[in-house]
TrEMBL record:
Keywords: Exonuclease, Hydrolase, Ligase, Nuclease. The lineage of its organism: Bacteria, Pseudomonadati, Bacteroidota, Flavobacteriia, Flavobacteriales. It comes from Maribacter algarum. It comes from the Bacteria. The keyword Nuclease applies. This is Ligase-associated DNA damage response exonuclease. It is an enzyme of class 3 (hydrolase). The keyword Ribonucleoprotein does not apply. One of its GO terms (molecular function) is RNA endonuclease activity.
Amino acid sequence: MRKPLLEFTDKGIYCSAAMVYLDPWKPVDRAIITHGHADHSRYGHRQYITHHNNMPIISHRLGEINVLGKNWGETFLINNVKFSLHPAGHIIGSSQIRVEYKGEVWVFTGDYKTENDGFTTPYEVVKCDTFITECTFGLPAFKWIPQKEVFQDINQWWAENQAEGKTSILFGYSLGKAQRLLKYLNPEIGKIYTHGAIENMTNVLRPMVEFPETNLITRETKKEELLGNLVLAPPSAHGSTWIRKMVPYVTASASGWMTFRGARRRRAIDKGFVLSDHCDWQGLLDSIKATGAEKVICTHGYSEIFSRYLREQGYDARTEETQYEGELNELNATKEESVAMN
């Protein structure tokens, strides 16, 4: 029986023909990295290969690393296996990895979204035989509202809070979601303040994207300065001593999980905005169909439900276990966020 081009091992997704791993979760000699989120770009690899725009992100997060940058669509050979990176639309610098060997083509998506957010390089359909897809929101209940409408609601919410003399605290993951929020917040309403983790990451990305002006919250920042203005903070800041000094405030979270009211209640959030950097149910289905793939491997998220549906539609679909978390990583404090909070 022919060995699969990509295998799921205890270290990560492995291409034995090239002796290279894709987004491995344990230290390896050579790793091709889709994007900068902590569950996909781990510390300890001897060499990292990623898109040029992701290089400053993972260097900021991981420190001194041996990293090689590639352009979109640039083909590079490793032991006669062809690799290339293609836009995933998830966050800045996020890639799908195309792998070709002896006429067989696989695509590993990492995390991806099909809605064009206006500053991340938009998702690109890549034809393949086997498609490895995330299933973070692989349920029919997840159907995204166009982002223009979401940001209208967010800015209106901020303006209403300002009229009541309250500080608006908006939670979003420090890499990706926070910058997407920042890009479309209306600075005419008031000042935008930031938690240290978000400020630091945004400064890494400012050479690539034009963002509104932000004000870093420090120990010297007074509560009175924040009243009527907006604070961007990571979810890990909720309920912390850092945030308690901002009373009176109103909280909101921007996440795909805000589709469910129960998720908002469990997190003690006043307002939820449905905004995700991942595909919704229809986005996943449309993406898979567009690739022309006959085989689909479903990873993190609602993988069992989603793969069963795909099999009912005639696909050769199965699931594989990984250590990727999708948007669940928005709920967990990272080391960087914890340090910046203190």
